[in-house]
C-alpha cells in the first residue's frame, strides 16, 4: 500500500486543493469533511474511488475527532502524514467590539485546540507510519515580531497559540522520529469567513501546490522548526 495522509478542513478552498494535490501524487487520502452538504469532495470521490476516503470530522469536537480516528483505524494501522488545515477566521475581538469574543472562543477551539486534538488522536497511527510527519497550516497573522494588524485580535492570537503548540510538539516528538511542517499559505482567496473571498493574492490551488511540495519533500534541516510561506520564504513566529 502507498503512503496515507489525513487532511482536515478538506471540504473546499485550500483544504480541498491540498487533497487534490496529494491524490495526484498517489497518496491514499482520508479527507475530513465538516460540511456534508458541500458536494465537491463527493465529486472528487468519483474520480479517485480507490484513493479517497471521506470521513465526517469537526476538529472542534472531541467525539467527532475520536470517531474519525476509529474510521481510519478500521482500514489501516498506520498513516504517514497528518495535515492540520481546518480553520475559521473573522473580526472577533476588536477592542471596541468585545461582544464578538464568543466567536473568538470558537476560533481558538478550531484553529489551535483542534490541531492538538487531531495529533493526540492520530499519534498511534502516525507512530507506525513511514514518515511520521505532522503538518500545520498557520498564518503570518500569528507572527508576533512582524504583526501589522490593528483589529480582529482573536484570529491572530489563535494562530500564535497554534505556533506555540507546534513548537512544543516539536520539542516533544522530533526526538522520537517525527518531522514537522509549519506553513503560511499567503493571502489566499479562501472560504475561512464562510464564503469565498474575492480579494487575495493567491487562488487556493496555487498555495496548495506549494503546500504539497513542502509537506511531501524532505528538508535539509529537519532538526530546525521554521515557518515557510508558499513562495518558500521563512517567516518569524
From TrEMBL:
InterPro entries given in the database record: NAD(P)-bd_dom_sf, SDR_enzymes, SDR_fam
Any one GO molecular function term: oxidoreductase activity, acting on the CH-OH group of donors, NAD or NADP as acceptor
Protein name as annotated: NAD(P)-dependent dehydrogenase, short-chain alcohol dehydrogenase family
Lineage: Bacteria, Bacillati, Bacillota, Clostridia, Lachnospirales
Amino acid at each position: 500500500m502507498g503512503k496515507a495522509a489525513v487532511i482536515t478542513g478538506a471540504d473546499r478552498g485550500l483544504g480541498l486543493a491540498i487533497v487534490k494535490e496529494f491524490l495526484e501524487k498517489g497518496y491514499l487520502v482520508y479527507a475530513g469533511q465538516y460540511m456534508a452538504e458541500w458536494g465537491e469532495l463527493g465529486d472528487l470521490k468519483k474520480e479517485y474511488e480507490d484513493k479517497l476516503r471521506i470521513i465526517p470530522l469537526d476538529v472542534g469536537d472531541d467525539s467527532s475527532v475520536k470517531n474519525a480516528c476509529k474510521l481510519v483505524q478500521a482500514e489501516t494501522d498506520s498513516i504517514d502524514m497528518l495535515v492540520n488545515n481546518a480553520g475559521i477566521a473573522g473580526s472577533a475581538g476588536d477592542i471596541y467590539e468585545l461582544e464578538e469574543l464568543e466567536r473568538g472562543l470558537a476560533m481558538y477551539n478550531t484553529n489551535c485546540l483542534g490541531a492538538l486534538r487531531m495529533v493526540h488522536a492520530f499519534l498511534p497511527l502516525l507512530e507506525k507510519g513511514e514518515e511520521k510527519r505532522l503538518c500545520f497550516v498557520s498564518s503570518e497573522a500569528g507572527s508576533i515580531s512582524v504583526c501589522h494588524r490593528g483589529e480582529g485580535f482573536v484570529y491572530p492570537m489563535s494562530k500564535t497559540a497554534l505556533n506555540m503548540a507546534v513548537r512544543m510538539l516539536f520539542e516533544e516528538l522530533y526526538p522520537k522520529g517525527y518531522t514537522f511542517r509549519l506553513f503560511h499559505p499567503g493571502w489566499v482567496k479562501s472560504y475561512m469567513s464562510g464564503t469565498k473571498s474575492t480579494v487575495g493574492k493567491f487562488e487556493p490551488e496555487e498555495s496548495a501546490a506549494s503546500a504539497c511540495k513542502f509537506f511531501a519533500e524532505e528538508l535539509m534541516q529537519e532538526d530546525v522548526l521554521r515557518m515557510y510561506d508558499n513562495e518558500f520564504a521563512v517567516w518569524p513566529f
